[in-house]
């Protein structure tokens, strides 16, 4: 996580302001300064159009046409905010949103959910590890197309990856399985031993359930078969950030 972002502007859009009062209280306890505005649809879309939000948080209880209007206003802004829905209540997830957050039950719960927003908006430091420079370039291009902000670095093999992890703060590693010498599983084991909080995604061009099972058992967050695409990365990052919860 980068320290470049020092504050966050969140617009909570709901027909009933009381629905987002816990969110406002949680924002006041965030680890970074958060300006949380409670808005109805009209004022919220106006603020979005003026580029006054880093994150747009939409109450799922809004009628579908109003949710669609808010999402369209947010998407029309460049650079646009991340768009999250607060609770699905059994409804279908709207198109073009960046994740789903459950409705908080108390102020501390709201604070934790605000921290998820902060984490998703900060650039995430990512290390790409592959012995092929061509594959590193391809993976970099795919990751760069994600809707989430990623600070990308590279390593050509496992030992170099470990050295970079020791010397810098990384959040996430995309690690090739089939590397000469210190292979992906061995590198994964060392990463989890030395830096247990770093999440690791194993990549491979061969679909092998046994390897996938070993990777998950060793602590991998996910197992991706090449080729993969920006939409696959976005789904994975939603899970990584905690943006897939419903209720």
Provide a quick synopsis of the model.
The chain has 247 residues and is an alpha/beta fold.
The fold-level CATH name of the largest domain is: Rossmann fold
- Major sheet size, sense and barrel closure: 5 strands, parallel
Mean pLDDT: 91
CATH architecture assignment name of the largest domain? 3-Layer(aba) Sandwich
CATH class of the largest domain: Alpha Beta
What structural class is derived from the secondary structure elements?
A: alpha/beta
Radius of gyration: 19 Å
Distance between the termini: 28 Å
**Order of H and E elements:** EHEHEHEEHEHEHEHEHEH
Uncertain stretches of 5 or more adjacent residues: none
| Multimerization status | single chain
What does the model show?
Helix content is 40%, strand content 21%. The protein is an alpha/beta fold and 247 residues long. The protein folds into two domains: 8-121, Rossmann fold (3-Layer(aba) Sandwich), CATH 3.40.50; 124-238, Rossmann fold, CATH 3.40.50. The strands form two sheets. The protein has a five-stranded parallel beta sheet with strand order 2-1-3-4-5, with helices on both faces. Strands 7-6-8-9-10 form a five-stranded parallel beta sheet, with helices on both faces. Helix 1 links the parallel strand 1 (8-13) and strand 2. The longest helix has 15 residues, at 107-121. The two termini are 28 Å apart. The model has no long low-confidence stretch (mean pLDDT 91).
């Amino acid at each position: 996580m980068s320290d470049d972002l020092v504050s966050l502007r969140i617009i909570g859009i709901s027909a009933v302001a009381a629905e987002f009062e816990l969110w406002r209280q949680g924002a006041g306890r965030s680890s970074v300064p958060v300006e949380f505005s409670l808005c109805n649809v009209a004022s919220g879309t106006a603020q979005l159009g003026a580029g006054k939000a880093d994150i747009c948080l939409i109450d799922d209880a809004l009628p579908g046409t109003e949710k669609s209007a808010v999402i369209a206003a947010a998407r029309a802004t460049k650079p646009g905010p991340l768009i999250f829905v607060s609770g699905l209540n059994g409804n279908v997830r709207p198109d073009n949103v960046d994740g789903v957050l459950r409705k908080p039950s108390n102020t501390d719960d709201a604070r934790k959910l605000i921290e998820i927003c902060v984490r998703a908006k900060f650039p995430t430091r990512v290390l790409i590890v592959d012995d092929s420079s061509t594959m590193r370039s391809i993976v970099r291009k795919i990751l760069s197309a994600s809707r989430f902000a990623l600070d990308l670095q590279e390593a050509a093999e496992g030992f170099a990856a470990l050295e970079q992890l020791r010397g810098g703060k990384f959040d996430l590693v995309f690690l090739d399985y089939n590397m000469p010498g210190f292979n992906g599983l061995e590198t994964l084991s060392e990463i989890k031993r030395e830096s247990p909080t770093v999440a690791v995604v194993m990549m491979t061009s061969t679909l092998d359930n046994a390897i996938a099972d070993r990777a998950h058992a060793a602590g991998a967050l996910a197992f991706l078969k090449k080729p993969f695409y920006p939409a696959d990365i976005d789904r994975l990052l939603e899970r990584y950030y905690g943006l897939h919860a419903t209720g």
